[in-house]
Structures are given as structure tokens and as C-alpha cells.
Specification:
The protein has 288 residues and is mainly alpha-helical. Helix content is 48%, strand content 5%. The protein contains 11 helices and 4 strands. It has a two-stranded antiparallel ribbon with strand order 1-2. A two-stranded antiparallel ribbon has the order 3-4. The chain is elongated, with a radius of gyration of 34 Å.
Length: 288
């Protein structure tokens, strides 16, 4: 239907559309807009012809240029592996002490280790390795399983409670949940652990808990509560706590006996990568 109704002000025909007393003028599109629109159509047709574009039942159209981002990434990764090959081989053939003594080799290990840590370890230990509740801080000098480069490398390889045949294994009994000691004794042991960390505690409870600690806890934590890295038992006399230092957290640990899991990286990373990661963690913790 043709509308010959003209706008009284502009003298331009209207389209016949009206809303709330406002009528739409039948103005043509700007030339510049039309040329951009036509250019987009031409570009799209050219792209369909030259580049991978159309999916099919068995693949997709590859285009006259046969361009493939996947193939390009594969080429770049191959070139990167070749570039890293010599330095990676040097890491494999060198001991951790030799790597840390060689500035050039150590710089490469630190750069590679930082990249791997960010992609795989920071999820639990934090971007800077500062840890969190239930996740160890890797920037201090407190180590459950030893902080030498060799200790760190071994932990990375086998993991902790990871299912690996040689995984680091420790298991604290759930003294309260499994009724190994009474609830009152758990309360007393909580005060005893608080006292071990040089904080004010109930003296009577500490006295009652002393023989219980020696009978139940000292086999792993030691008679003085200093811990034992051979079995992954933490030092109870310092100010570093994996699950919290308040009385409720200590009581919960004695009662339920939490234990985290660290995966084994032996099958995911090659030897050079594990060594680089060990050097990075060791350096971040200021060494030991």
C-alpha cells in the first residue's frame, strides 16, 4: 500500500507508521552506510571462499588459502619445544644443586617453573604461593616433608596421599570421632596444643593432657611437639598452622583429623619441568 501522506514541516512522504502521534519519514539510508553494508557482504563472501567457514557432516570447508589456527599453533609449539630442547636437556642432566649454582640455567628454570606453577599449582597454593586454610604456604621456611630441593622434587613427583605407590603418606587418627580418647580429653589436648605454641592456656587442662599427649601424639609429633618431617607431622610449637590456630580449629583437627591431597605430577610433567618447578618453589621460599 503506497502512502502519499507528506510531513507538513519537511515535505517528505511518511511510511505510514505512527506511534504516539509521531510519524516515520520515508528517508533513504545514507550513502556511506549503504557502501559499508555492501562492503561487509563482499567481505563475507570473500571470507567464505578463502577461509575455513562452512561446517559439514564430515569436517568443514578449508577454503582456498587452507588456513588453520590449529596447524599454526602446532607449528609454533614445535618451534618452542625445539628452542627449549637444549636448555631442557641441560636441566635433565644437571642436579638441582648444579642448576641453582649456574645463573643462566637457574634463570631458565625459574622462568619455566613460574609458568608451570601459575598454570597448575596456583589454584590451591595461590598466585604467589602464599597458601590458605588447608593449603600450605610455600613462601616460608616451614615444611611438612622437608624443604631441600631434593625433598621438594620428590614431593612433586609422588604427591601427598595421591594414590602413587610412593606417595608421601601420613594419617592422623580421628581421636574424637573414632572414640580413641574421650571428649573431655580432646578438650584438654586442645589446651595442651595451645600451650605448646607458647600461648596462654588452662593450666589444669594442660596438666591432665600431658600424659595423654605422650601416649597418643608424641609418636609422630615428638615428646616436645616439634614435629617430624620423616612422617609429615607438623611442629606444634611454632606459629604456622595449616587449618587454623584458634581453639575451635585445633579441636576440630584433633576430633576429625583432616588431611589434604596433593596430586602426583610425575606422569603429567617431564623430568625437566619437575626440576624447574622444584627450583622455583625452593627459590620462592628463600631456600633451605
Amino acid at each position: 500500500m503506497v502512502h502519499n501522506d507528506k510531513d507538513e514541516v519537511t515535505g517528505i512522504n511518511t511510511t505510514g507508521h505512527e506511534w504516539d502521534g509521531i510519524r516515520e519519514l520515508d528517508n533513504p539510508l545514507p550513502r556511506w552506510w549503504l557502501w559499508i553494508f555492501y562492503a561487509c557482504i563482499a567481505f563475507a563472501i570473500g571470507y567464505w571462499i578463502l577461509m575455513p567457514a562452512w561446517p559439514g557432516l564430515h569436517g568443514y570447508t578449508h577454503g582456498l588459502l587452507a588456513k588453520s589456527d590449529r596447524a599454526q599453533v602446532a607449528v609454533e609449539l614445535k618451534a618452542l619445544r625445539a628452542q627449549r630442547g637444549a636448555e631442557g636437556a641441560s636441566l635433565v642432566n644437571a642436579s638441582l644443586e648444579q642448576i641453582e649454582a649456574d645463573p643462566k640455567l637457574q634463570a631458565y628454570a625459574l622462568a619455566a617453573g613460574a609458568s608451570v606453577f601459575g598454570d597448575n599449582c596456583a589454584t590451591c597454593h595461590g598466585a604467589g604461593g602464599g597458601g590458605g586454610k588447608g593449603y600450605p604456604n610455600l613462601r616460608d621456611d616451614v615444611w611438612l616433608w622437608g624443604g631441600t630441593p631434593e625433598d621438594i622434587e620428590h614431593t612433586l613427583r609422588v604427591g601427598i596421599r595421591s594414590g602413587h605407590p610412593n606417595a608421601r603418606m601420613s594419617q592422623m587418627p580421628a581421636f574424637g570421632r573414632d572414640q580413641i580418647v574421650t571428649p573431655d580429653q580432646v578438650n584438654d589436648l586442645t589446651e595442651y596444643v595451645v600451650a605448646l605454641s607458647h600461648r596462654k592456656a588452662n593450666a589444669a587442662a594442660v596438666a591432665r593432657a600431658a600424659p595423654v599427649f605422650q601416649a597418643q601424639c608424641s609418636v609422630c609429633h615428638g615428646p616436645a611437639g616439634l614435629g617430624n618431617q620423616a612422617v609429615g607431622a607438623p611442629n606444634l610449637t611454632d606459629r604456622d598452622w595449616l587449618y587454623g590456630s584458634d581453639r575451635a580449629s585445633i579441636h576440630s583437627q584433633i576430633w576429625n583429623a583432616r588431611g589434604g591431597v596433593m596430586p602426583t605430577w610425575e606422569k603429567r610433567f617431564d623430568t625437566a619441568t619437575i626440576k624447574a618447578l622444584a627450583v622455583y618453589v625452593h627459590a620462592n621460599a628463600s631456600g633451605k
